[in-house]
Known about the structure:
DNA_polIII_beta_C; nine-stranded antiparallel β-sheet; DNA binding; eight-stranded antiparallel β-sheet; 3 domains; Beta sliding clamp; 7 helices; DNA_polIII_beta_cen; cytoplasm; 26 strands; DNA Polymerase III, Chain A, domain 2; alpha+beta
Amino acid sequence: MKFVAKSTDLIKAVQSCSRVIVSASASPILTNILIDCSSKKESGLIRLFATDLEMYYEVFIPAQIEDAGEVMVSSKMFASILDVFSSTDTIAFSCNKENFNIELSGGKTESTLYGMPPDDFPQLPIFDSASPYTFKVPLAKLQSLIKNTSYAIATDQVKPAYCGLYFKTIEKAVRAVATDGKRLTMAEYKFDTDSIKEHGEIIIISKVINELSKNTCELPGDEVEISIYSNQAAFKTKNYSYYSRLIDGKFPDYNMVIPKEHKIKMAVNVTEMLRELRKMMPIASESSNTVKINIAGDKILYSARSPKSGSIKSESTVTALEAGELEINFNAKYFIDVLSTIKSDECILEFNLVQSPVKIYPKEELENESHTHVLMPVRPGFNV
Protein backbone atom coordinates (compact mmCIF):
# COMPACT_ATOMS: atom_id res chain seq x y z
CA MET A 1 0.00 0.00 0.00
CA LYS A 2 1.64 3.24 -1.17
CA PHE A 3 0.64 6.81 -1.94
CA VAL A 4 1.99 10.35 -2.00
CA ALA A 5 -0.26 13.24 -0.91
CA LYS A 6 0.09 16.94 -0.18
CA SER A 7 0.96 17.35 3.49
CA THR A 8 -1.67 20.07 3.98
CA ASP A 9 -4.42 17.85 2.55
CA LEU A 10 -3.47 14.85 4.69
CA ILE A 11 -3.03 16.85 7.88
CA LYS A 12 -6.37 18.64 7.45
CA ALA A 13 -8.17 15.34 6.73
CA VAL A 14 -6.71 13.63 9.80
CA GLN A 15 -7.59 16.61 12.00
CA SER A 16 -11.22 16.51 10.84
CA CYS A 17 -11.35 12.75 11.47
CA SER A 18 -9.87 13.23 14.95
CA ARG A 19 -12.71 15.57 15.95
CA VAL A 20 -15.20 12.76 15.37
CA ILE A 21 -13.36 10.36 17.65
CA VAL A 22 -14.18 10.15 21.37
CA SER A 23 -10.91 9.76 23.24
CA ALA A 24 -12.55 7.90 26.14
CA SER A 25 -14.38 5.47 23.87
CA ALA A 26 -15.44 2.17 25.43
CA SER A 27 -14.06 0.42 22.35
CA PRO A 28 -10.34 1.05 21.67
CA ILE A 29 -10.86 0.34 17.99
CA LEU A 30 -12.93 3.54 17.68
CA THR A 31 -9.90 5.67 18.55
CA ASN A 32 -8.43 4.78 15.15
CA ILE A 33 -8.73 6.10 11.60
CA LEU A 34 -9.18 3.82 8.62
CA ILE A 35 -7.01 4.76 5.63
CA ASP A 36 -8.38 3.31 2.41
CA CYS A 37 -6.47 3.42 -0.87
CA SER A 38 -8.69 0.91 -2.66
CA SER A 39 -12.27 2.18 -2.96
CA LYS A 40 -11.43 5.34 -4.98
CA LYS A 41 -8.10 4.35 -6.51
CA GLU A 42 -9.34 4.84 -10.08
CA SER A 43 -10.28 8.43 -9.22
CA GLY A 44 -6.93 9.11 -7.59
CA LEU A 45 -8.45 9.61 -4.14
CA ILE A 46 -7.69 8.11 -0.76
CA ARG A 47 -10.44 7.79 1.83
CA LEU A 48 -10.04 8.46 5.54
CA PHE A 49 -12.86 7.17 7.73
CA ALA A 50 -13.67 7.68 11.44
CA THR A 51 -16.67 7.01 13.66
CA ASP A 52 -17.93 7.03 17.23
CA LEU A 53 -20.87 4.78 16.17
CA GLU A 54 -23.22 7.74 16.50
CA MET A 55 -21.70 9.71 13.65
CA TYR A 56 -19.72 8.38 10.69
CA TYR A 57 -17.32 10.59 8.75
CA GLU A 58 -15.37 10.03 5.55
CA VAL A 59 -13.13 12.47 3.71
CA PHE A 60 -11.43 12.08 0.33
CA ILE A 61 -8.15 13.71 -0.67
CA PRO A 62 -6.25 13.50 -3.96
CA ALA A 63 -3.09 11.39 -4.01
CA GLN A 64 -0.71 9.55 -6.31
CA ILE A 65 -1.65 5.97 -5.46
CA GLU A 66 0.92 3.34 -6.33
CA ASP A 67 -0.50 0.33 -4.45
CA ALA A 68 -4.03 -0.12 -3.10
CA GLY A 69 -4.85 -1.35 0.39
CA GLU A 70 -6.27 -0.45 3.79
CA VAL A 71 -4.82 0.08 7.24
CA MET A 72 -6.04 1.22 10.62
CA VAL A 73 -3.92 3.65 12.66
CA SER A 74 -4.21 5.49 15.98
CA SER A 75 -5.83 8.88 15.36
CA LYS A 76 -3.96 10.60 18.20
CA MET A 77 -0.52 9.29 17.24
CA PHE A 78 -1.03 9.80 13.49
CA ALA A 79 -2.10 13.42 14.01
CA SER A 80 0.89 14.08 16.29
CA ILE A 81 3.40 12.57 13.86
CA LEU A 82 1.93 14.47 10.90
CA ASP A 83 2.65 17.76 12.68
CA VAL A 84 6.34 16.97 12.21
CA PHE A 85 5.77 16.97 8.44
CA SER A 86 3.79 20.23 8.32
CA SER A 87 6.69 22.13 6.72
CA THR A 88 7.07 19.64 3.85
CA ASP A 89 5.15 19.87 0.58
CA THR A 90 4.29 16.18 0.27
CA ILE A 91 4.22 13.08 2.44
CA ALA A 92 5.04 9.61 1.11
CA PHE A 93 3.02 6.90 2.87
CA SER A 94 3.68 3.17 2.58
CA CYS A 95 2.31 0.26 4.57
CA ASN A 96 3.61 -3.29 4.79
CA LYS A 97 0.62 -5.56 4.19
CA GLU A 98 2.13 -8.36 6.28
CA ASN A 99 2.72 -6.55 9.61
CA PHE A 100 0.93 -3.23 8.82
CA ASN A 101 3.94 -1.13 9.75
CA ILE A 102 3.59 2.37 8.24
CA GLU A 103 6.53 4.31 6.83
CA LEU A 104 6.20 8.10 6.42
CA SER A 105 8.71 10.34 4.70
CA GLY A 106 8.83 13.98 3.67
CA GLY A 107 11.80 16.26 3.10
CA LYS A 108 14.57 14.97 5.38
CA THR A 109 12.20 13.45 7.92
CA GLU A 110 11.18 9.80 8.22
CA SER A 111 8.94 8.04 10.71
CA THR A 112 7.60 4.57 11.39
CA LEU A 113 4.18 3.94 12.91
CA TYR A 114 2.62 0.65 13.92
CA GLY A 115 -0.65 0.23 12.09
CA MET A 116 -3.28 -2.48 12.54
CA PRO A 117 -5.26 -4.73 10.22
CA PRO A 118 -8.46 -3.01 9.10
CA ASP A 119 -10.76 -6.04 9.30
CA ASP A 120 -12.54 -5.12 12.55
CA PHE A 121 -13.06 -1.43 11.79
CA PRO A 122 -16.81 -0.52 11.68
CA GLN A 123 -18.47 -0.07 8.31
CA LEU A 124 -20.97 2.56 7.27
CA PRO A 125 -24.45 1.79 8.63
CA ILE A 126 -27.09 0.17 6.47
CA PHE A 127 -29.61 2.86 5.71
CA ASP A 128 -33.27 2.16 6.33
CA SER A 129 -34.65 3.34 3.00
CA ALA A 130 -33.60 2.95 -0.60
CA SER A 131 -35.32 6.21 -1.57
CA PRO A 132 -34.47 9.01 0.87
CA TYR A 133 -35.72 12.55 0.56
CA THR A 134 -32.73 14.39 -0.94
CA PHE A 135 -32.04 18.05 -1.63
CA LYS A 136 -29.06 20.40 -1.88
CA VAL A 137 -28.21 23.56 0.08
CA PRO A 138 -25.25 25.91 -0.53
CA LEU A 139 -22.67 25.01 2.13
CA ALA A 140 -22.13 28.66 3.08
CA LYS A 141 -25.88 29.14 3.64
CA LEU A 142 -26.18 25.95 5.70
CA GLN A 143 -23.27 27.12 7.85
CA SER A 144 -24.97 30.51 8.26
CA LEU A 145 -28.15 28.76 9.49
CA ILE A 146 -26.05 26.73 11.92
CA LYS A 147 -24.20 29.79 13.23
CA ASN A 148 -27.47 31.61 13.87
CA THR A 149 -29.08 28.73 15.74
CA SER A 150 -26.56 26.32 17.28
CA TYR A 151 -25.79 28.53 20.29
CA ALA A 152 -29.27 27.72 21.66
CA ILE A 153 -28.94 23.91 21.47
CA ALA A 154 -29.25 22.39 24.94
CA THR A 155 -26.25 20.59 26.39
CA ASP A 156 -28.03 18.55 29.08
CA GLN A 157 -29.88 15.32 28.38
CA VAL A 158 -33.07 16.05 30.33
CA LYS A 159 -34.98 16.62 27.09
CA PRO A 160 -33.16 14.82 24.24
CA ALA A 161 -35.17 16.70 21.57
CA TYR A 162 -33.62 19.97 22.83
CA CYS A 163 -30.10 18.55 22.34
CA GLY A 164 -30.17 18.81 18.56
CA LEU A 165 -31.10 21.14 15.72
CA TYR A 166 -34.67 20.97 14.43
CA PHE A 167 -34.56 20.97 10.64
CA LYS A 168 -37.49 21.10 8.25
CA THR A 169 -38.01 21.81 4.59
CA ILE A 170 -40.97 24.01 3.81
CA GLU A 171 -42.05 25.15 0.37
CA LYS A 172 -39.08 26.93 -1.26
CA ALA A 173 -37.14 27.11 2.04
CA VAL A 174 -35.32 25.21 4.78
CA ARG A 175 -35.87 26.12 8.42
CA ALA A 176 -33.60 25.48 11.41
CA VAL A 177 -34.71 25.93 15.04
CA ALA A 178 -32.93 25.42 18.35
CA THR A 179 -33.95 25.93 21.97
CA ASP A 180 -32.77 25.05 25.45
CA GLY A 181 -35.95 26.27 27.17
CA LYS A 182 -34.47 29.66 28.07
CA ARG A 183 -33.92 30.95 24.53
CA LEU A 184 -35.07 30.02 21.07
CA THR A 185 -33.74 30.86 17.64
CA MET A 186 -35.12 30.23 14.16
CA ALA A 187 -33.40 30.75 10.82
CA GLU A 188 -34.59 30.19 7.26
CA TYR A 189 -32.92 30.02 3.88
CA LYS A 190 -35.20 30.66 0.90
CA PHE A 191 -34.46 29.07 -2.46
CA ASP A 192 -34.73 31.01 -5.71
CA THR A 193 -36.35 28.06 -7.48
CA ASP A 194 -39.03 25.46 -6.81
CA SER A 195 -36.39 22.75 -6.34
CA ILE A 196 -37.47 21.98 -2.78
CA LYS A 197 -40.79 20.90 -1.32
CA GLU A 198 -42.16 20.47 2.16
CA HIS A 199 -40.92 17.47 4.13
CA GLY A 200 -41.35 16.23 7.68
CA GLU A 201 -39.25 17.56 10.53
CA ILE A 202 -36.04 15.97 11.78
CA ILE A 203 -33.73 16.66 14.74
CA ILE A 204 -30.03 16.47 13.90
CA ILE A 205 -27.52 15.61 16.63
CA SER A 206 -25.43 18.60 17.71
CA LYS A 207 -22.10 16.88 16.99
CA VAL A 208 -22.89 16.70 13.27
CA ILE A 209 -24.04 20.33 13.31
CA ASN A 210 -20.80 21.44 14.95
CA GLU A 211 -18.66 19.55 12.45
CA LEU A 212 -20.56 20.84 9.42
CA SER A 213 -19.97 24.38 10.65
CA LYS A 214 -16.19 23.83 10.86
CA ASN A 215 -15.51 22.42 7.40
CA THR A 216 -14.65 25.22 4.99
CA CYS A 217 -15.86 25.64 1.43
CA GLU A 218 -13.41 24.55 -1.25
CA LEU A 219 -15.17 26.82 -3.75
CA PRO A 220 -17.74 29.62 -3.25
CA GLY A 221 -20.52 27.54 -4.82
CA ASP A 222 -19.97 24.33 -2.84
CA GLU A 223 -23.18 22.55 -1.89
CA VAL A 224 -24.24 20.01 0.72
CA GLU A 225 -26.48 17.18 -0.42
CA ILE A 226 -28.76 16.25 2.47
CA SER A 227 -30.48 12.86 2.40
CA ILE A 228 -33.15 12.16 5.01
CA TYR A 229 -34.13 8.61 5.94
CA SER A 230 -36.65 7.55 8.58
CA ASN A 231 -34.15 7.69 11.44
CA GLN A 232 -30.86 8.60 9.77
CA ALA A 233 -29.42 11.40 7.67
CA ALA A 234 -26.46 11.88 5.36
CA PHE A 235 -24.66 15.15 4.55
CA LYS A 236 -22.39 14.99 1.53
CA THR A 237 -20.14 17.52 -0.15
CA LYS A 238 -17.68 16.99 -2.95
CA ASN A 239 -14.88 15.95 -0.59
CA TYR A 240 -16.44 14.68 2.62
CA SER A 241 -19.59 13.08 4.07
CA TYR A 242 -21.24 12.77 7.48
CA TYR A 243 -23.75 10.06 8.33
CA SER A 244 -25.63 9.90 11.62
CA ARG A 245 -28.70 8.82 13.47
CA LEU A 246 -31.47 11.34 14.11
CA ILE A 247 -32.76 12.27 17.55
CA ASP A 248 -36.03 10.53 18.34
CA GLY A 249 -38.34 12.92 20.13
CA LYS A 250 -40.92 15.67 19.79
CA PHE A 251 -39.57 19.18 19.34
CA PRO A 252 -41.57 21.87 21.18
CA ASP A 253 -44.05 24.01 19.28
CA TYR A 254 -41.71 26.91 18.58
CA ASN A 255 -44.47 28.97 16.93
CA MET A 256 -46.14 29.24 20.35
CA VAL A 257 -42.93 30.65 21.85
CA ILE A 258 -42.27 33.42 19.32
CA PRO A 259 -44.09 36.57 20.57
CA LYS A 260 -46.95 37.81 18.40
CA GLU A 261 -47.50 41.11 20.24
CA HIS A 262 -45.32 43.86 21.64
CA LYS A 263 -45.69 47.17 23.45
CA ILE A 264 -42.19 48.54 22.89
CA LYS A 265 -40.19 48.36 19.68
CA MET A 266 -36.74 49.81 19.11
CA ALA A 267 -33.76 49.68 16.76
CA VAL A 268 -30.39 49.35 18.45
CA ASN A 269 -26.83 49.42 17.16
CA VAL A 270 -25.56 45.86 17.56
CA THR A 271 -21.94 46.81 18.27
CA GLU A 272 -22.97 49.39 20.85
CA MET A 273 -25.32 47.06 22.69
CA LEU A 274 -22.68 44.33 22.75
CA ARG A 275 -20.24 46.82 24.24
CA GLU A 276 -22.71 47.88 26.94
CA LEU A 277 -23.56 44.31 27.92
CA ARG A 278 -19.89 43.32 28.07
CA LYS A 279 -19.26 46.25 30.41
CA MET A 280 -21.70 44.62 32.84
CA MET A 281 -20.11 41.14 32.78
CA PRO A 282 -17.38 41.52 35.45
CA ILE A 283 -20.11 42.28 38.01
CA ALA A 284 -22.97 40.33 36.40
CA SER A 285 -20.90 37.13 36.25
CA GLU A 286 -21.10 36.96 40.05
CA SER A 287 -24.91 37.15 39.97
CA SER A 288 -25.81 34.45 37.42
CA ASN A 289 -24.97 36.89 34.57
CA THR A 290 -28.06 38.93 35.42
CA VAL A 291 -28.30 42.42 33.95
CA LYS A 292 -31.19 44.83 34.48
CA ILE A 293 -32.36 46.75 31.41
CA ASN A 294 -34.38 49.85 32.19
CA ILE A 295 -36.09 51.24 29.08
CA ALA A 296 -37.42 54.79 28.97
CA GLY A 297 -38.29 56.09 25.50
CA ASP A 298 -35.05 56.29 23.52
CA LYS A 299 -32.80 55.49 26.49
CA ILE A 300 -31.62 52.18 27.93
CA LEU A 301 -29.99 52.05 31.36
CA TYR A 302 -27.95 48.87 31.87
CA SER A 303 -27.07 47.87 35.43
CA ALA A 304 -25.63 44.93 37.31
CA ARG A 305 -24.99 44.31 40.99
CA SER A 306 -23.08 41.74 43.00
CA PRO A 307 -23.45 41.53 46.80
CA LYS A 308 -19.78 40.52 46.93
CA SER A 309 -18.13 42.96 44.50
CA GLY A 310 -20.29 46.04 43.89
CA SER A 311 -22.34 47.48 41.05
CA ILE A 312 -22.09 49.06 37.61
CA LYS A 313 -24.37 51.24 35.45
CA SER A 314 -24.21 52.53 31.88
CA GLU A 315 -26.64 54.31 29.57
CA SER A 316 -27.05 54.31 25.79
CA THR A 317 -29.40 55.85 23.25
CA VAL A 318 -31.59 53.83 20.87
CA THR A 319 -34.09 54.57 18.12
CA ALA A 320 -37.55 54.22 19.66
CA LEU A 321 -39.90 52.93 16.97
CA GLU A 322 -42.74 52.39 19.46
CA ALA A 323 -41.76 54.08 22.72
CA GLY A 324 -42.55 52.92 26.22
CA GLU A 325 -41.11 52.21 29.66
CA LEU A 326 -40.08 48.84 31.05
CA GLU A 327 -37.70 47.40 33.62
CA ILE A 328 -36.67 43.83 32.81
CA ASN A 329 -33.83 41.43 33.68
CA PHE A 330 -31.92 39.18 31.29
CA ASN A 331 -29.02 36.77 31.30
CA ALA A 332 -26.38 39.02 29.72
CA LYS A 333 -24.35 36.11 28.36
CA TYR A 334 -27.40 34.79 26.50
CA PHE A 335 -28.08 38.27 25.11
CA ILE A 336 -24.48 38.52 23.92
CA ASP A 337 -24.78 35.11 22.23
CA VAL A 338 -27.76 36.40 20.23
CA LEU A 339 -26.21 39.71 19.22
CA SER A 340 -22.96 37.99 18.19
CA THR A 341 -24.80 36.15 15.41
CA ILE A 342 -26.35 39.28 13.86
CA LYS A 343 -24.49 40.57 10.82
CA SER A 344 -26.45 43.77 10.18
CA ASP A 345 -25.42 47.02 11.88
CA GLU A 346 -28.74 47.31 13.68
CA CYS A 347 -31.27 44.89 15.10
CA ILE A 348 -34.88 45.25 16.21
CA LEU A 349 -35.96 44.50 19.79
CA GLU A 350 -39.63 43.96 20.64
CA PHE A 351 -40.70 43.91 24.31
CA ASN A 352 -44.10 43.25 25.86
CA LEU A 353 -44.43 42.66 29.62
CA VAL A 354 -41.80 42.21 32.32
CA GLN A 355 -42.33 38.43 32.31
CA SER A 356 -42.58 38.18 28.50
CA PRO A 357 -39.71 37.18 26.20
CA VAL A 358 -37.97 39.71 23.94
CA LYS A 359 -38.00 39.14 20.20
CA ILE A 360 -34.78 40.06 18.40
CA TYR A 361 -34.09 40.08 14.68
CA PRO A 362 -31.74 41.86 12.23
CA LYS A 363 -32.94 45.15 10.82
CA GLU A 364 -31.50 44.12 7.45
CA GLU A 365 -31.49 40.43 6.58
CA LEU A 366 -28.90 38.66 4.47
CA GLU A 367 -29.93 37.70 0.95
CA ASN A 368 -32.52 34.89 1.02
CA GLU A 369 -32.17 34.52 4.80
CA SER A 370 -34.25 35.44 7.82
CA HIS A 371 -33.48 35.09 11.53
CA THR A 372 -35.58 35.37 14.67
CA HIS A 373 -34.28 35.12 18.21
CA VAL A 374 -36.36 34.86 21.39
CA LEU A 375 -34.89 35.35 24.86
CA MET A 376 -36.70 34.71 28.12
CA PRO A 377 -36.21 37.24 30.93
CA VAL A 378 -34.98 36.19 34.35
CA ARG A 379 -37.09 36.90 37.42
CA PRO A 380 -36.67 40.29 39.09
CA GLY A 381 -34.62 40.13 42.22
CA PHE A 382 -32.13 42.93 42.82
CA ASN A 383 -31.97 46.68 43.12
CA VAL A 384 -29.15 48.90 41.86
